[in-house]
């Protein structure tokens, strides 16, 4: 038996506010349908005044998404505000790739016409959100209307050491990826720094020594792999050594100067030895304050 879903008009609803939408996205940013994103910040204060609704990022690529939410239809002020916040963030953190994201209940034809004037100069994603009443609850859905790649209609700061624990990362990553982290700690990091322990934070798992944070290495567990970051300057010799060992390198973090490695469930001896040598260099540089 088919059930007709009741669409909820958020602009007229007494309790389902913009803050409610923001909280739903912040709880699980993947509902937007634009990637395995995580929350970097909420209500981010801007130097020119105002607050950015959400700053999201992709842990794999470090790309950032400046998200603005609008109840009802898109309007000129919404467009200008979104682009302004995107521009502020990209100028403030030019080492990262940025995309502006507009979320609204209705994406108007006028909005699409205005965006065409930019001729693809601004990486912009437009998402149409719809809320349905389902029994006693509500379902929030998003449909991509404008994509940053094609710029047409679609047919189909800095890590903050907020305390966390293992259970949080088991939820964000998986039990499998945490085993990878623990294996790297035991077989790689402790070969260099025997006192090293895991220090769980909201955005990454760092290293602690005698209770003090010493993040010459950090980890971000994903569902089936781990992103291991090693703090070393970008040098051709290091790149060549990693390539020779068969390590899968990701985009270099130019902001915090970390080599980033995609670590699968198993490593061969050559890969493990290469990682150990890199971690040793990072530990020595850390001791020298470099």
Task: Provide key terms for this protein.
14 strands; 290 residues; Aspartate Aminotransferase, domain 1; seven-stranded mixed β-sheet; nucleic acid binding; Trna Endonuclease, Chain: A, domain 1; four-stranded antiparallel β-sheet; alpha+beta; 7 helices; tRNA_endonuc-like_dom_sf
Would you give an account of this structure?
There is one protein chain. Residues 149-160 have low confidence and may be disordered. Helix content is 31%, strand content 31%. The longest helix is centred in the last third of the chain and has 19 residues, at 269-287. It has helices at residues 18-27, 76-92, 109-116, 166-172, 175-192, 236-245, 269-287; strands at residues 6-8, 38-45, 51-57, 64-73, 98-106, 124-134, 137-146, 196-200, 205-209, 212-213, 217-221, 226-231, 248-249, 258-263. It folds into two domains: 6-146, Trna Endonuclease, Chain: A, domain 1, CATH 3.40.1350; 166-287, Aspartate Aminotransferase, domain 1 (Alpha-Beta Complex). It has 290 residues and is α+β, with helices and mostly antiparallel strands.
Structure in a nutshell:
With 290 residues, the chain is of the alpha+beta class. Helices cover 31% and strands 31% of the residues.
């Amino acid at each position: 038996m088919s059930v007709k879903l009741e669409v909820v008009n958020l602009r007229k609803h007494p309790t389902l506010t913009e803050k409610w939408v923001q909280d739903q996205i912040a709880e699980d940013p993947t509902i937007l349908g634009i990637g395995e994103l995580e929350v970097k910040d909420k209500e981010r204060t801007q130097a020119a005044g105002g607050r950015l609704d959400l700053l999201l990022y992709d842990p794999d690529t470090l790309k950032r998404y400046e998200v603005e939410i609008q109840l009802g239809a898109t309007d000129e002020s919404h467009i200008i505000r979104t682009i302004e916040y995107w521009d502020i963030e990209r100028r403030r953190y030019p080492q990262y790739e940025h995309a502006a994201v507009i979320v609204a209940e209705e994406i108007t034809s006028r909005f699409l016409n205005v965006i065409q004037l930019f001729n693809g100069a601004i990486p912009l994603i437009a998402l149409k959100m719809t809320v349905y009443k389902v029994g006693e609850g509500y379902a929030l859905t998003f449909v991509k209307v404008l994509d940053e790649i094609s710029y047409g209609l679609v047919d189909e700061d800095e890590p903050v050491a907020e305390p966390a624990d293992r259970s949080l990362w088991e939820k964000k990553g998986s039990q499998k990826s945490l085993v990878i982290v623990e294996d790297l700690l035991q077989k790689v990091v402790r070969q260099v720094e025997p006192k090293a322990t895991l220090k769980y934070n909201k955005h990454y798992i760092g290293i602690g020594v005698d209770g003090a944070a010493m993040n010459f290495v950090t980890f971000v567990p994903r569902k089936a792999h781990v992103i291991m970051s090693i703090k070393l300057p970008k040098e051709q010799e290091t790149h060549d050594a990693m390539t020779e060992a068969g390590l899968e390198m990701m985009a270099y973090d130019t902001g915090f100067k970390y080599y980033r490695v995609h670590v699968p469930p198993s490593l061969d001896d050559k890969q493990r030895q290469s990682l150990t040598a890199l971690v040793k260099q990072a530990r020595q540089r850390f001791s020298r304050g470099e």
